[in-house]
């Protein structure tokens, strides 16, 4: 059959096989159409179906044939190699370079409006790639999506309750029901981890693997993807140290795959979980700023209570109009320093950060206190501001902190 001219026939064949029990008929049908091995895994890269059911001398295919699941290192390597582009989902694409050079293949993702539900790989090997292959693969993913939605189990009830609590717009009766159900897990003084997933397809695809890791290693955890963030509620099984140790282990696990967490502990009020979520998310973004932007790399987990109020400044800086709240004199002082070769801005910055303590500021600047007094006087004279006025000092302090973002 000339499939280039018979895509409608391919679509019909997939839908005929969709009605047969299990997924093997669909995968076998795809294998016959592409004249190539086809494998279908779930969102955790655990084997659902493959055809033919024998080795083909490819590491991924043969590992799934023997083990039924791919190693996390392999998943991460493929994500890094082929899913670097921005976006949360990906359409079918063909690759014949890098890790798949010896066995070119088509990659495809099966997803619905909410999450990733599976992955397809078509191992073309030496077979010539044709443009119609991608459209036919889209038909396959569409058919699989329909079949999965008709047969899959109901999502985790605990995850649904957590989502209701995270949603700022949930009504109180909904929150009350969720809290009553989740309280069976002893949520007193629980801990919330939030890992913002960037817009790369790699991290979005890996989130399912991370959720599986949490559920397997820490059954009392409740991990979900919420607003493109990986959110994990850790329940208080025993002691303070154990709970924080668990959070640290999860953070280290995610750090291997360039995913950074922020945390809030303890969670005292489940009605305010949406606020804790915001705190933890901003803490993670602040950690990202420290480690990626500033180059201060380390694996320690950041807790909101240990770095507040810096996440507040980060939140303010995300407002596109935040610059209008920065004291205008700072721009003038910077321009003056550049023109005259002075360091008045740095002097003012250190003075503010030392809470206007002159001895500590002079020591940090490695200058005499009298020199500091002279510089502060010059700032007052040149720029017509009163450095003894509380409101002015507070405005300058907040402005300097916001300028860092």
What descriptors fit this protein?
five-stranded antiparallel β-sheet, 17 helices, 405 residues, Arc Repressor Mutant, subunit A, 3 domains, Alpha-Beta Plaits, Beta-Lactamase, alpha+beta, PucR_C-HTH_sf, five-stranded mixed β-sheet, 13% strand
Fold and architecture overview:
- By secondary structure, this protein is of the alpha+beta class.
- The chain has three domains: 3-151, Beta-Lactamase, CATH 3.30.450.40; 157-305, 2-Layer Sandwich (Alpha-Beta Plaits), CATH 3.30.70.270; 322-403, Arc Repressor Mutant, subunit A, CATH 1.10.10.
- The protein is 52% helix and 13% strand.
- It is built from 17 helices and ten strands.
- It has helices at residues 7-18, 24-34, 59-67, 72-82, 132-151, 157-166, 172-182, 201-217, 240-255, 273-293, 304-307, 310-317, 329-340, 344-353, 358-365, 369-383, 390-403; strands at 38-41, 47-51, 93-95, 105-111, 116-123, 190-196, 221-226, 229-234, 262-267, 302-303.
- A hairpin with a 2-residue loop joins strand 7 and strand 8.
- Helix 4 (72-82) packs antiparallel against helix 8 and helix 10 packs across helix 12 (310-317).
- The termini are far apart.
- The model has no long low-confidence stretch (mean pLDDT 87).
Mean pLDDT comes to: 87
Within CATH, the superfamily of the largest domain carries the name GAF domain
Query: Runs with pLDDT <50, length 5+?
Result: none
Approximately what portion of the residues adopt beta-strand conformation?
5-15%
Radius of gyration, Cα only, in angstroms?
28 Å
- Global outline: elongated
Strand element count? 10
What share of residues is helical? 40-55%
Q: Which class of secondary structure composition applies to the elements? A: alpha+beta
Instruction: Sketch the topology as an H/E string, one letter per element.
Output: HHEEHHEEEHHHEHEEHEHEHHHHHHH
Cα distance, first to last residue? 60 Å
């Amino acid at each position: 059959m000339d499939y280039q001219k018979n895509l409608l026939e391919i679509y019909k064949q997939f839908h005929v096989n969709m009605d047969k029990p299990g997924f093997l008929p669909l995968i076998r049908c795809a294998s016959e159409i592409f004249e190539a091995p086809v494998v279908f895994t779930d969102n955790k890269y655990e084997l659902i179906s493959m055809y033919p059911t024998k080795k083909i001398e490819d590491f991924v295919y043969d590992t799934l044939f023997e083990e039924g699941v791919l190693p996390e290192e392999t998943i991460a390597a493929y994500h890094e190699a082929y899913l670097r582009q921005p976006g949360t989902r990906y359409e079918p694409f063909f690759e014949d370079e890098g890790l798949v050079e010896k066995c070119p293949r088509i990659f495809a993702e099966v997803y619905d409006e909410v999450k990733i539900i599976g992955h397809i790989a078509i191992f073309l090997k030496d077979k010539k790639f044709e443009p119609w292959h991608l459209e036919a693969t889209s038909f396959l993913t569409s058919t699989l999506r329909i079949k999965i939605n008709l047969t899959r189990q109901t999502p985790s009830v605990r995850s649904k309750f957590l989502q209701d609590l995270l949603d700022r717009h949930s009504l109180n009766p909904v929150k009350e029901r969720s809290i009553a159900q989740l309280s069976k897990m002893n949520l007193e003084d629980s801990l919330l981890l939030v890992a913002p997933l960037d817009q790369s397809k790699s991290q979005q695809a890996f989130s399912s693997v991370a959720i599986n890791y949490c559920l397997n290693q820490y059954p009392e955890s409740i991990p979900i993807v919420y607003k493109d963030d990986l959110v994990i509620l850790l329940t208080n099984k025993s002691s303070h140290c154990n709970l924080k140790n668990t959070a640290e282990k999860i953070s280290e696990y995610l750090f291997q795959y360039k995913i950074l967490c922020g945390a809030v502990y303890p969670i005292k009020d489940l009605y305010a979980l949406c606020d804790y979520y915001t705190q933890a998310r901003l803490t993670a973004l602040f950690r990202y700023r420290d480690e990626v932007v500033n180059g201060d790399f380390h694996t320690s987990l950041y807790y909101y209570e240990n770095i507040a109020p810096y996440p507040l400044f980060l939140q303010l800086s995300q407002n596109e109009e935040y610059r209008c709240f920065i004291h205008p004199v700072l721009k003038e002082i910077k321009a003056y320093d550049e023109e005259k070769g002075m360091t008045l801005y740095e002097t003012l910055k250190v003075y503010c950060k030392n809470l206007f303590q002159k001895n500590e500021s002079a020591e940090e600047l490695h200058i005499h206190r009298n020199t500091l007094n002279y510089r502060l006087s010059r700032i007052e004279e040149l720029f017509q501001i009163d450095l003894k006025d509380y409101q002015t000092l507070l405005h300058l302090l907040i402005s300097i902190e916001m300028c860092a973002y």
